[in-house]
Amino acid sequence: MGAAMGSHINAGDTAWMLVATALVLMMTPALGIFYVGLVRSKNALNTFMMSAGALGVVTVAWAAIGYSLAFDKGNGFIGGVTYAFLHHVGFGPRAGMSIPQLVFFAFEGTFCIITAALVSGAVVERMRYSTFLVFMVLWSVLVYPVLAHWVWGGGWLEQHGTLDFAGGVPVEMASGFSAFAAALVVGARKDYGRQALLPHNAVYALLGAGLLWFGWFGFNGGSGYRIGNPGTLAFTNTLLAPACTLVVWFILDLLRDGRVTAIGAATAIIVGCVGITPASGYISPAWAMALGGLAALPSYAVIMWRPRTRLDETLDVLAAHGIAGLTGILFIGFFAQRAWNGVSNGLLYGHPSQLGWQVIAALAGPAYAFVGTFVILKTLGLFLPLRVTEHEEALGMDIVEHGEQAYTHGEGAILVSPEGGLEVEMAVAQPRRVNA
To answer: Could you say which of 62, 213, 298, 392 is the most buried, measured as most Cβ atoms within 10 Å of its Cβ?
Structure first.
């Protein structure tokens, strides 16, 4: 992330960062809407609740210890505990910035919140809600702060000049490769590969993607920490890159099937926003457009490939975030331009070592996220059930995990009877008894 100069509070910078923080926080319920559209109706409420849960448990974990582990000096691997429970976090400016450290804490916290929520896309429709809440707490302490420290908190990647403006390593690649590990550990849905498991509401997916894009202007634009050139460049690039991803995705859809799909359009918006995230403050608008178009290709290929495997990474977090984030991190190594970012040039502009450290980040970040998530879930599985039973999965996560439903009428609605059993209300038939 770009750091602002100065040691005094600037009212304009602070006002912008308060707005940016609110925009990024909005992205978590927006993610919930996006994910809801992609799952089956019987799991819609549970899917949204996974994002809602992050707003609670991850925020508390971030305030308790996560922020300190990410941004206290510590060592090259992880920060210290000086800021635990917000000790020494007040109205004064963070070193080298012109905003209160409290605002910096809140802004960075919104990043951790949405990143933990993103991982839910790999395990929706079968993972126990209570276990996922515990997982998010552990992940927010053991995985995210470490990666954030590496690139933003004075860690070893930052020390060697790795560039990551707004979260290619700790947000995008971390969520994508953590999702990959989570899907492997939790396992596939019982009907995966045997029947079509289709999105139930493409409009929700489009609405959620649109709201995410809106929030992303705070996500990337706020990562300059002030009103000025880095944030302005990132803000503009956040408009351009996803637009180009959409165009390329439309072309790929037309070439493949002769039709442009709504789910494809929603996914393209996310891929474009993800791809530009690490590079948004480091490359020119022209290169941002090129990155937007390029990011569509590997992500589209992985999304087409994954259903042919036994990997039930349900909502393609690996493709949309992990692969697109990796593309953006590597793109910086080629096309970063000091004339635009005032920091460093990439290979194309005479600085080949920049590419080398971007490659190292693209290897180390995913590796740590994958291994950390795998170990956390395997350990959790020794003490807590990771997933519901097959019978409960068939009934739907909404009624089983929450005793509520997103939809109480229409095809597939499940109602609680006065006798305590379950009834399935079909659109064209009378309710019938299902033994619970």
So the answer is: 62
